[in-house]
Structure formats: C-alpha cells, structure tokens
Specification:
Number of strands: 2
Mean pLDDT: 77
Order of helices and strands: HHEEHHHHHHHHHHHHHHHHHHHH
Strand content: under 5%
Oligomer: single chain
Number of domains: 2
Distance between the termini: 47 Å
Radius of gyration: 27 Å
Strand order of the largest sheet: 1-2
Structural class: mainly alpha
Number of helices: 22
Largest sheet: 2 strands, antiparallel
C-alpha cells in the first residue's frame, strides 16, 4: 500500500504547474471540490423529487422508480466516461514504461491507474451518491447501510468499466478515447440539466402510471444489482448479501484479467499512402495542419461541442429567446481564445522548425487567430438559424460576435508571448490569473456589447419592464448613449487594440 500512496502523491505533479507537491493539492483538490458541489446540487434535486412523487405503485414508491431511472442513466454515463480513460491510463500512458521498470507489482499499478482515473472521471457517481443519504432521511431508513450499499453498487460499476476498458483498448486510439470521454462529460451535464428541469418533472408528464409498470419490472428485477441497491435504501437490508458477493466476484475478475495482460499494447501498424498535393498558397499547409490538430485535440472538440449544445439546450428550455444569444456570445469569444492558445502552444512546441519555413511569423500567428474565429462564427450563424424564429436580432449581432472573438484570440496569444520563459510542455499553459483574466474580459465585453443592447431591446418590445431603463429614458439622449453609443465605442476600441496587440506578437 505504501507504493500506491507514493504513486498517487506524485501523479498530480505531472497534471499541474511545477510547485510543491502535496497529496491533496492542485488538480485533485479542484476535482474533489467539484464533486462536493455536484453532490450538494443532486441532493437538493433528490429531496425535491422524492418528496413530490411520494406515492405507491404496485407496492413500490413511485419516487424510487424515477430515482432508479436517473441512477441507471448516470451509471451508463459513468461507464461511457470512465472506460475510455482507464484504457488510456492502462495501455496508452506515456509514463507506464517507466513505471513498469520500478520495483512495484502490477496490481499496484492497476489500482493506481483505477484510482487516478476515478478522481478525474467519477462525476456521475457524485450524482448518484446523494440518493443514499436523502432517501433514508425521507423514508426513515438506515443511512449507514444505504451508503454501504452504494459503495458495493459503485464497486460493481467500476469493475465492469475496468473490464470494458481492456476490450476498448484494442479497438480505439488514444485520441478517440479522449474524445469519447469528453463527449460523456457533455452528456452527463446536459442529461442532469434536462432531467432536473421543471418541464421534465411537471406532474402532467406522469399522470399515466401504466407506462412505468414496465420500467419498475426492469429496475426491480430479482437479479438486478440496481434493484438490490434500491431495496437496500428502501430498508430491505438482506439485499446487502448478494450485492456484496457480486461486487467481490467482479472486483476479482477486474483485477485478475488486466494484470495478466501486457499493459503496453502494440497497435496494428497500417501502411499509409502519402500523396503530395500542390498547395494553392504557401499558408495552406499551415491551415491544414491546424485543422487536423483541432480535429484530433480532445479539448478543442469538447469546447466546440459544448458551445453548440448549451445554447441549443437553452433555446429549447428557456422562455426568453435572448438568453441563448447572450450565453453563446460569452462562450464563443472565451472558447475562441482557448483554442487559439492550443494552436499557438502546438506551434511553439515545434520550434525552431516554424522559423525556418518561408513564411512570416505574422502569417503563422494569423492562422491561429482566424481559424477558431471562423469556426465559431459559422457555429453562431448555424445557431442563429434556430433562433431567428424567435428573434431576428441574432443575425444583427453576428459582426459583434466576430469582433469579440478576434479580440479574445489576439489577447490570449498576447498573454502567452508576454512571458518568453513559459513552459509549453505543460497541459495547463495559461496561469490561473491569465485564465481568469480572459474569462473576465469575455464576460465584461459581452455584457457591454451584447447584454446591454439585448436588455434595451427586450424593454422596448415589452417582453418585460425594467425600472432603471424607464428612469434612464426619462432623461433625454441618455438611453441612446448608454445602450448604443457605449457598446459601439467599445467595439471600435476592441478593433484598435486588436491591431495594436497583433503588431507585438511573435513566435
């Protein structure tokens, strides 16, 4: 066990900036804090649902049927998230060849990889765990035994995910695993957002209880581990025996199978026919390289999917047609900056090769700015086609979105170049101060250039009345100055400072 604690202690050092190593510091502390926040939010959600739907259906509480549906959904999302990352940690980890040379048993390496993966991809379990506390409080059952039942149920899911990771590692690459894992984060977030919305939990949707009879038979099947867990929480503690033995059996196989395999799997090498194509421009190879990098970069894929999915989710769930426009404007400019950071850092890692090419540094940097800007601008235009049914103003804000994205991208690269000694090999390239500065600028500029005009438009169209705008309108020429002149002036300043910062950029 001592070797395991040493590996866990120093594993976070590679995932953060170089600083003093502590067991509960850095990224681990941030993830644990996020788990606690999500667990508290889920706890309030379960309390509301269990209290509101506290009725009996064929001897089973209806709130338990709904909770079982949520738990099985989040269990599958956990498998969807954990499985690709355990495949990476066990078979695609760049530090694994070094770890295999250490006097550490393979079972210790397996537990280290499992715990390390669980820390960074166990969000779905933080949505399930509060049910083990909230339900016993409402139905006056044993909280301690309910938590024990959850631990056995979680052990079953983790064991299945570990075995699935072995199979998955033979079929998909590291890049595909990261994309699948990041996609599961999106599904997890949006599933909880949608299922906990007032529209989904409205009583009108659950008036016909016959549809849930079949769901009850599936969830509470005598051979279902989920049914055992739900019955334990409901006070039937004799189900602890089968769930305990099943968790031990699956844990045994999930350990025995991986340690009998070679952790360093050699992939099939495929011959690729390399075709040389004549470029129309000397910059086209850079454009193609950057686009291929974004296609393979899991973080950039996640940012792009999130920027599309979240505004669309607001569009279908929010009564205000302008809220998706403001949210996308803020996300668009901030995510453009982050993608530009990824592209610029990728170019810096290739130094000194870029400086030997017959292309100016400004042209190389220009591609890092315009590629994410154009991508997110087209995403905005696509989303505007959905929003145009509710408001025509989504099209009028397109030039504003473009200017905001350009400024944020230039600002992000400018912050990078201010520190020549920056270590671009780190995963987190921007410091926490720089990251928060970009986020603050994005929200502040979006609030002035998008939110203020939108607020004024909603007030004038009578969507809702805002008292302070009414008072401002009573003063002649003050409302045009605040809601039109100031945002326009800020846009011109953004254009000016974008050109000014761009002249100072270099690789």
């Amino acid at each position: 066990m001592r070797e395991l604690f040493i590996l866990l202690k120093y594993s976070s050092k590679n995932k953060q900036r170089r600083k003093k190593v502590s067991f509960f510091g850095g990224n681990i502390q941030i993830f644990l804090l996020q788990y606690i926040i999500f667990a508290i939010i889920s706890g309030f959600f379960y309390y509301r649902m269990l209290s509101f739907f506290n009725i009996e259906i064929s001897g089973i509480n209806f709130s338990f049927i709904l909770s079982g549906f949520y738990i099985i959904l989040f269990s599958f999302l956990f498998l969807f998230n954990y499985t690709p990352f355990i495949a990476i940690n066990l078979y695609e980890n760049q530090f694994l060849p070094f770890l295999l040379t250490l006097p550490v048993r393979k079972i210790i390496l397996f537990f280290y990889s499992s715990i390390d993966t669980l820390i960074y991809s166990g969000f779905a379990l933080s949505f399930i765990f509060p049910f083990s506390i909230v339900a016993p409080i409402i139905f006056k059952t044993n909280i301690f035994l309910s938590v024990i039942g959850f631990l056995f149920f979680a052990l079953i899911i983790i064991s299945i995910a570990n075995i699935s990771g072995i199979v998955l590692a033979y079929f998909i690459t590291k890049t595909a695993s990261k994309i699948i894992g990041n996609l599961s984060y999106l599904l997890l977030f949006f599933s909880f957002y949608f299922l906990s919305s007032k529209e989904f939990l409205s009583p009108e949707k659950f008036q016909n209880f016959k549809h849930f009879e079949r769901l009850k038979e599936i969830l509470f099947h005598p051979l279902s581990p989920l049914g055992w867990y739900l019955n334990i929480v409901n006070g039937k503690y004799y189900y602890l025996l089968p769930i305990f033995f099943l968790s031990l059996i699956l844990l045994f196989f999930s350990i025995k199978i991986p340690i009998n395999f070679d952790f360093s799997i050699s992939r099939r090498k495929e011959k690729k026919n390399i075709k040389y194509k004549k470029s129309f421009s000397i910059l086209s190879p850079f454009l193609k390289k950057d686009l291929n990098f974004l296609r393979r970069d899991a973080s950039s894929t996640y940012l792009t999917l999130f920027s599309i999915a979240y505004p669309l989710l607001l569009y279908f769930t929010s009564n205000n047609p302008y809220s998706p426009l403001f949210v996308f404007a803020a996300l668009n400019s901030f995510y453009c900056a982050l993608v530009s950071v990824h592209l610029f850092a990728h170019e810096k890692r290739a130094l000194p090769l870029p400086k030997t090419l017959p292309v100016s540094e400004k042209d190389i940097i220009r591609t890092k700015i315009f590629i994410p800007t154009i991508i997110y601008f087209f995403i905005y235009l696509i989303i505007s086609l959905f929003m145009i049914k509710k408001t025509l103003y989504s099209i009028f804000f397109a030039p504003v979105i473009f200017i905001l994205s350009i400024f944020e991208s230039v600002l992000s690269i400018y912050l990078l170049t201010r520190k020549p000694s920056r270590d671009y090999s780190q995963k987190m390239i921007l410091s926490q101060t720089e990251f928060l500065s970009l986020e603050f600028f994005s929200l502040f500029i979006t609030a002035i250039c998008v939110f203020l005009p939108l607020l004024y438009i909603q007030h004038k169209k009578g969507i809702f009345t805002i008292d302070f705008i009414t008072k401002i309108e009573s003063i002649p020429l003050l409302s045009p100055i605040i809601f039109l002149f100031i945002p326009s002036l800020l846009l011109f300043l953004l254009i000016y400072f974008s050109f000014k910062m761009f002249r100072k950029l270099s690789i």
